[in-house]
Specification:
The protein is mainly α. It has 6 helices and 2 strands; from the N terminus they run ααβααβαα. It has a domain of about 100 residues. It is elongated and about 95 Å long. Pfam families: DUF4190.
């Protein structure tokens, strides 16, 4: 007994999501018997509303949560504070960006914990970078003030850097 099948049989077996039109002469000609049973019908015989699951009736699409803008700005200012603190020259900017980044990071964490909001992790990363940038900015500021008050304090460090520069092959 040989069984022949066409491509429509394979599509029905491999793709259960395929929606067939029923009740039209064209659909009946393409899929004989398809109008008798609609797989989208529930136990009550009614079709579920659009956007709900066939089996449970639960919504299939969840509204996308939005990232807290304060968390994003906290991350950006934390990154700027960290970069300015690492340069040392931009220590005053690192202090300002660090303070504002810490405030926005804290507010972003609170906002990120609300329903339909995300960004708690983004705010935490911004908060950590803002704190590190602030500490580096304060340390660079202290080093700048100490260097301005007592220039002899950094002479040994300047000599070591000069010695290293002469040892580098050119």
């Amino acid at each position: 007994m040989a069984h022949s099948y066409d491509s429509h049989d394979v599509e029905r077996q491999t793709d259960p999501r395929q929606v067939r039109q029923t009740g039209t002469p064209e659909a009946e000609a393409q899929h004989p018997g398809a109008s008798q049973v609609d797989p989208r019908q529930t136990d009550t015989g009614q079709q579920p509303e659009r956007g709900t699951s066939w089996t449970t009736g639960a919504p299939t699409e969840m509204p996308r949560a939005k990232t807290s803008p304060m968390a994003v700005f906290g991350l950006v200012l934390g990154l700027l504070a960290l970069l300015c603190g690492l340069t040392g020259v931009l220590a005053p900017l690192a202090i300002v960006f660090g303070i504002v980044g810490i405030v926005l990071g804290i507010l972003g964490r609170k906002d990120g914990m609300q329903r339909e909001r995300t960004g708690k992790g983004v705010a935490t990363a911004g908060l950590i970078m803002a704190i590190i940038g602030l500490v580096l900015g304060v340390l660079a500021g202290i080093a700048f003030v100490l260097g301005a008050m007592n220039p002899d304090l950094f002479i040994p460090a300047q000599q070591q850097v000069g010695d290293l520069m002469t040892q580098v092959p050119r």
